[in-house]
Amino acid sequence: MPNLDSLLSFPLDDAGPSRSASERTPIPPASSHIVVTDTIDAPAFFVLVHFLRASHAANKSARQVDIKGKSRAKDVKVVWIGCSGDGVVHLKHVARKSGIQIDSETQRGAFAYIDAASIALSTSVVQTGQEELIDVDNATRPHPILGQLYTQVERELVRETSEEASWSSETLVIIDDLSALSWSLDHTDVFGRPVDVARQICTWTKALNSLVTKHRASLVTLLHADASSIGKHEASDSVEESVLRSLLRTADVWIEVKELGSGRARDCDGEITVHPLVRPSLAHSLKTTPRDPSAASHFPPLQAFAVETPCPSRSKAVLYRIAPDGQSAATAGVGAGTSTSRVQVWARGTGRGFL
């Protein structure tokens, strides 16, 4: 039965449409930006857990190779930015259902959790009137919460890079989720003047994307799209719509998760559409003609990633189902599709017998 690994895989060395599973990896290429959107009826938390499981599997395989006395690659590190307020305890519970011990991964240096919700509560944004008067264009001023998050991510990314050049990412920075982060920011200053939250979020995301590019890492961003132009309620939230448009202009792959148009189904939790986009982020970060041609050979090519799906067309959505193996117990009462150890995917029209 095809699972999420067959849907979200990337080439190891080049962007060619490789057909061999051994020549593909679930780890995103370095400098890539993966945008994930979901809805209330079809949460995409399982996609973030998929990348966490992928890094854990890669590290476990590397440790087994090291035991045999062969050379070993550096562990793929995950930097998880939790913005929803659930905390690391919730993530530990979900990860344990997938066979991942967060505490052990943290001790090995393969995992780091940044609690954005706690930072938002502890950060003081009260400023003196004199400072506010000096800052005429307060709408464009960086928010203290975003500044602290950037600093903490930068601290986690500072480590020795692998001697062997790798096309895959050495670190995955996962934002869970960007919508909750925007809600935690003040939409007005102390004088009651409006603050352009969407602009601050977009600027911070672009800066974070540039940061991960320098450290041979990749960025995975989750955004709730219920109130955007792709949701049921269309563009009812200006901040959400602006952030979505900005992300899609700079992203490399867009993973769209949403509920079925016909409503809930017993054997299906929703549908996933993978949109391979062009490489605008890398085009902005790399020079057209580098002085040293060999220096740019380790970066992904300036073209769309070869993301293969079991569908005849990449623009066609595939259906997904969270395998009934007890994973829903991790988020009892929250809803289907919020955590996973295995996600089954299949094309439309294949029928329930394909399960």
Automatic annotation (TrEMBL):
The family database entries (InterPro entries) matched by this protein are listed as: ELP6 (IPR018627), P-loop_NTPase (IPR027417)
Q: Name one GO cellular component term.
A: elongator holoenzyme complex
PANTHER family for the chain: ELONGATOR COMPLEX PROTEIN 6
One of the GO biological process terms? tRNA wobble uridine modification
- Bilayer-crossing residues are none
Q: What is the official name of this protein in its record?
A: Uncharacterized protein
Q: Which family does it belong to?
A: Belongs to the ELP6 family.
Gene3D superfamilies found in the cross-reference section: P-loop containing nucleotide triphosphate hydrolases
Q: In which pathway does it act?
A: tRNA modification; 5-methoxycarbonylmethyl-2-thiouridine-tRNA biosynthesis
Taxonomic source organism:
Testicularia cyperi
